Amino acid sequence: MINRRRDVRREFTGAPVDQAVLHRVLAAAHAAPSVGLTQPWDFVLVRDRTTRAAFREHVEIKREEFAGSLPEERAERFAKIRIEGILESSLGVVVTYDANRGAPNVLGRHSIAGLYSVCLAIQNLWLAATAEDMGLGWVSFYDEEFLTGLLGIPDGVRPVAWLCLGPVSHFEHTPDLERHGWRKRRPLEQAVHLERWGDTAISG
Amino acid sequence: MINRRRDVRREFTGAPVDQAVLHRVLAAAHAAPSVGLTQPWDFVLVRDRTTRAAFREHVEIKREEFAGSLPEERAERFAKIRIEGILESSLGVVVTYDANRGAPNVLGRHSIAGLYSVCLAIQNLWLAATAEDMGLGWVSFYDEEFLTGLLGIPDGVRPVAWLCLGPVSHFEHTPDLERHGWRKRRPLEQAVHLERWGDTAISG
């Protein structure tokens, strides 16, 4: 008999999120800096199970497309990796970007800076959720057009992320993809350059 | 004689940043989540005054171009707003994006998700800097090609931000652009939608 070591899998519990907690998390996101103070983000809170099931079905198709594009060894690893908790989480938070907010005279806006601002808000949301003992997963396997149609998002507004949010069984110290042997983290020292690209030693 | 009320302007002090503090701030950035665990960011630390002066000169030209595009009333407000602290800050931190890191099989990568990851790292850096009592300003008035040439950034790597970093005289409670009447913040309630786009009341 083979002794299989099984990981305790981190799971969303699905427990409802307290309204005051959710408000704090969204307020943290909304407090992010933004180019020209445009605050180009919106947050669509999705609890409806029919909506979530439809999105999950779409994501599953995109996941299979990606799996089919992988070499065999990578595909096997990928099969073991959880990529979404759309139905298991307490709610979905869809974060969008409105390119026309503050137009036409956006201070500092070049083509993509508004999208950058939305990402700053997402990271604030992520950190606030963690501080409130909630897990967060960013689902990236989807077509924007599908989500736009599903949620009635108007022209000119672009969905940037579907975030699965809610209490989890526990937190991991090592990222899932590293635990599953998908990819290792690189040391900080390799990412820091002095004065010009190329020199990678840290110095004060 | 006219009695002019002058704001106490928030200024970078230019004091050197302690090496341990800088390491903590960069480590916070480097701890950000990233699509497929690609960690596609790098950080170029720029203290050299010649490099900074050259960048500032370029930014000044771009600022004037933007000012020239504004209606008169907006241009007058804009003239009063500080948009950079390139020479006054302690150092510049240029954050870049390497689209090829982790390629070709990036888990979850669609065209722009790698750039999103870089922004998550930038927000971590921003919050960590604030926690260390340092100011941070994101300079967005520049051409990427100029910065690429100035710092020897190779093909395939894209500069996302020049961050002015360092101790400041004090912190403001109200964002600069709001204090200068450029734009008001909108209430959180307007940014939150329930189930589908359009309904903007917060609910738990």
What does it look like?
The structure is a homodimer of 204-residue chains. With 204 residues, the first copy, chain A, is an alpha+beta fold. Chain A has one domain: NADH Oxidase (3-Layer(aba) Sandwich), CATH 3.40.109.10. In chain A, 35% of the residues lie in helices and 17% in strands. Chain A has 6 helices and 5 strands, in the order αβααβαβαβαβ. Chain A has a 4-stranded antiparallel β-sheet, sandwiched between helices. In chain A, helix 2 packs antiparallel against helix 5. The longest helix of chain A is centred in the N-terminal third of the chain and has 20 residues, at 49-68. Chain A is globular, with a radius of gyration of 19 Å. Residues 1-6 of chain A have low confidence and may be disordered. Chains A and B meet through helix 1, strand 1, helix 4, strand 4 and strand 5 of A and helix 1, strand 1, helix 4, strand 4 and strand 5 of B.
Strand tally of chain A? 5
| Terminal-residue CA separation of chain A | 56 Å
Rg calculated over all Cα atoms of chain A: 19 Å
What is the assigned CATH homologous superfamily of chain A? NADH Oxidase
Oligomer: homodimer
- The class by helix and strand makeup of chain A works out as alpha+beta
The CATH topology of chain A is NADH Oxidase
Tell me the β content of chain A.
15-25%
Q: Which sheet architecture does the biggest sheet of chain A show?
A: 4 strands, antiparallel
The greatest inter-chain interface is formed by: A-B, 81 and 81 residues
Regarding CATH, which class of chain A? Alpha Beta
N to C succession of SSEs of chain A: HEHHEHEHEHE
What's the arrangement of strands in the largest beta sheet of chain A?
A: 1-2-4-3
Reported CATH architecture of chain A: 3-Layer(aba) Sandwich
Unreliable residue stretches of chain A: 1-6
How many DSSP H or I helices of chain A?
A: 6
